[in-house]
Amino acid sequence: MELTETELAGVFLIEPKVFGDNRGWFTETYSEINFKRFGIDTVFVQDNHSYSAQKGTLRGLHFQNAPFTQTKLIRCTRGRIIDVAVDIRKGSPNYAKWVAVELSAENFKQLYISKGFAHGFLTLTDDVEIQYKVDEFYSPECDRSIRFDDPTIGIEWGAKSPVVSQKDQNAQLLSESDCNFIYE
Description:
Jelly Rolls; 2 helices
């Protein structure tokens, strides 16, 4: 398992080793020992599984406010996505900056997103499944969204007319959000 730091401190690309032969393949997608070796001591408490039927489906940008902020470990197990993390920690030198990584069933890459970031993804194929771990349980009271097309953030999704939920279409701009993340 290899870890690569992205341009945003707290967001890491993780590439597990894949062992294959004529029968198929095997990979270890999470190992507490390896994560501790990387200096990550996150304790995950919930696994989530998401399915998107149509290419061009955009989900996000999502996060949970304190006291139920979430660290996420995301992987795509069917199809391909562009996975995005946005720094929304007030006072951060990278505030409103974003990083995007292609995750797919073929490349086995994962994205680790620390607390203080919003998360979203765009499907690049039909029939996409993502699975992700979180270190805090879902809290409807703390659940928040920021507009995927917020001009302050300026994410280059590469989709002219994405399929978006009503919730995401009506999300607030970052400047209007009650996000309570503070950079430390």
